[in-house]
């Protein structure tokens, strides 16, 4: 999943370089930050899942979930403050770029989870 997320991140960062041609580096900054945040969130998802399986404490999974949400909301809030409140020109459109960098990773997580569960069902059925 991390490898696929990395590939998607590289493609998105490459596409966001188009903004540099129009003198809008905020898209590249936002997509890069959003991609890094999502990769960190995927790692936290795996850590939370493995902790609940090892220790059988659902509170740990909730803790990792809250860490992911705080990371995402903090990043988005920070970019909004830099873009609108501090009015730093380099960060124009970085908020939207971060959402573009973050959102496709959710599809990566869903697709890889579905493929994994299908393969597990085939193994369990003996196909």
Residue fraction in strands: under 5%
Please give the largest β-sheet: none
Kindly name the structural category.
Answer: mainly alpha
Poorly predicted spans: none
Q: Could you give the topology of this structure?
A:
Blueprint: H1 2-16, H2 18-21, H3 26-55, H4 58-85, H5 94-125
What key attributes describe this structure?
127 residues, mainly alpha
Summarize the structure.
By secondary structure, the protein is mainly α.
Structure description:
This protein is mainly alpha-helical. The chain is 86% helix and 0% strand. It has 5 helices and no strands. The protein has helices spanning 2-16, 18-21, 26-55, 58-85, 94-125. The longest helix has 32 residues, at 94-125. It is flat, with a radius of gyration of 17 Å. The two termini are 24 Å apart. The relative contact order is 0.18.
